[in-house]
């Protein structure tokens, strides 16, 4: 069950959630998905990602953050979010035409890389790369401040967290989740693995069991934009209810590790659970469709 030191060290070296769900969020989402995908889906992605271990998704979940500030990866910098130009807390709303930038956003990127994954004409390394992007962006779109324009998704808002100064985006990416788990001591893979096991149990038989039946409603591989917009819309609604319940101005300089944290923590937990469950369903659809087209022979064999 232990990850090798290299993987753990690589995770620890990532900037702690510089601009995206911290690595903990992404890793947890990936492990939840691992727990829900069908066996054929697991085999498909283990093959594509060339990793037969149970860490095949979690091990690549933060890759997209590791390349976004590199010379090569710069073109992906806008792919992690969509800047909803709404006015929280009085009006929340995300609009694809209005809010997705010319060179892409998290919604168009889920579509773009999903279609690359399905394109059997592409080299396997391209499809493998596309898989890493999809795994990451389905996580990102569930973080409310990845679906908000105000102060660059809260990056420009200074707040206090246990008396030190942080930006609001970082609080939602990382600080709330880490506090919930009682601190992760630089071991995001172990912490994510355990958190995912807990949330998987909650989805299967616990507090999320009734609601989770609806989490994949309306999901369609034929229409990735509408599917992703449904997810984005849900995240964005949280900006009005929990991120800026009193508006962006009043939050500046506030200590958020108290009452604000108490209200935000269940929301973060729910979003991580949803993201993992939906990622599994999305990967199932992709694997079904892709294996249908690459192995028509299998149909004759039935
Ligand atoms: C599979 O992924 C895990 C996590 O990234 C890594 O530790 C392990 O070395 C990988 N295995 C192979 C065969 O690549
Ligand atoms: C789609 O992905 C390709 C390959 O990474 C990238 O070059 C292109 O800019 C992306 N297109 C959009 C609209 O995001
Ligand atoms: C998840 O963790 C919480 C808090 O520790 C605990 O109360 C709950 O029983 C756990 N759920 C499962 C399904 O393990
Ligand atoms: C977006 O969310 C709001 C609630 O915040 C809901 O009323 C609306 O139907 C949703 N729209 C879409 C397209 O999902």
Can you walk through the features of this model?
The protein has about 300 residues and is mainly α. It has a single domain (about 5-10, about 20-290), classed as P1 Nuclease, CATH 1.10.575. The chain contains 15 helices and 2 strands. It has helices spanning about 5-15, 25-35, 40-50, 65, 95-100, 105-120, 125-140, 150-155, 170-180, 190-205, 210, 225-245, 250, 260-295, 295-300; strands at about 160, 165. Strands 1-2 form a two-stranded antiparallel ribbon. Helix 2 (about 25-35) packs across helix 7, helix 3 crosses helix 14 and helix 6 packs antiparallel against helix 7 (about 125-140). The longest helix is centred in the C-terminal third of the chain and has 36 residues, at about 260-295. The protein is globular. Residues about 1-20 and about 295-300 have low confidence and may be disordered.
Query: What is the CATH class?
Result: Mainly Alpha
**Ligands and ions found:** 2-acetamido-2-deoxy-beta-D-glucopyranose
Radius of gyration (CA) equals 19 Å
> What is the strand arrangement across the widest sheet?
1-2
Helicity level, as a percent range?
A: 55-70%
Succession of helices and strands: HHHHHHHHEEHHHHHHH
**What overall geometry do the principal axes of the alpha carbons give?**
globular
Strand content: under 5%
Global mean pLDDT: 90
Q: What's the arrangement of secondary structure elements?
A:
Blueprint: H1 5-13, H2 23-36, H3 39-48, H4 63-67, H5 96-99, H6 106-118, H7 124-140, H8 151-154, E1 158-161, E2 164-167, H9 168-180, H10 188-204, H11 209-212, H12 224-243, H13 248-251, H14 259-294, H15 297-301
Antiparallel strand pairs: 1-2
Protein name: S1/P1 nuclease
Organism: Hypoxylon rubiginosum
């Amino acid at each position: 069950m232990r990850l090798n030191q290299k993987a753990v060290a690589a995770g620890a070296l990532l900037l702690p959630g510089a601009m995206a769900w911290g690595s903990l969020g992404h890793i947890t989402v990936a492990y939840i998905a691992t727990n829900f995908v069908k066996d054929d889906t697991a085999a498909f992605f283990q093959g594509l990602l060339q990793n037969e271990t149970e860490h095949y998704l979690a091990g690549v979940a933060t890759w997209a953050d590791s390349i976004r500030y590199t010379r090569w990866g710069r073109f992906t910098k806008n792919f992690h979010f969509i800047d909803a130009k709404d006015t929280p807390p009085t009006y929340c709303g995300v609009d694809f035409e209005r809010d997705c930038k010319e060179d892409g956003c998290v919604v168009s990127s889920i579509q773009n890389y999903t279609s690359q994954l399905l394109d059997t004409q592409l080299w396997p390394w391209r499809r493998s790369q596309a898989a890493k992007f999809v795994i990451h962006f389905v996580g990102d779109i569930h973080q409310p401040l990845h679906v908000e324009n105000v102060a660059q998704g809260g990056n420009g808002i200074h707040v206090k967290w246990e008396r030190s100064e942080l930006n609001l985006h970082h609080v939602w990416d990382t600080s709330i989740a880490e506090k919930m788990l009682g601190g992760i001591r630089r071991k995001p893979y172990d912490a994510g693995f355990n958190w995912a096991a807990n949330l998987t149990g909650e989805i299967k038989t616990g507090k999320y069991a009734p609601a989770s039946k609806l989490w994949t409603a309306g999901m369609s591989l034929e229409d990735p934009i509408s599917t992703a917009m449904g997810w984005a819309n849900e995240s964005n609604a949280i900006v009005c209810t929990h991120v800026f319940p009193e508006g962006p101005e009043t939050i500046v300089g506030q200590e958020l590790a108290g009452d604000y944290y108490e209200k935000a923590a269940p929301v973060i937990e729910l979003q991580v659970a949803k993201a993992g469950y939906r990622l599994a369903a999305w990967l199932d659809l992709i694997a079904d469709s892709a294996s249908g087209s690459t192995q028509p022979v299998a149909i004759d064999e039935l």
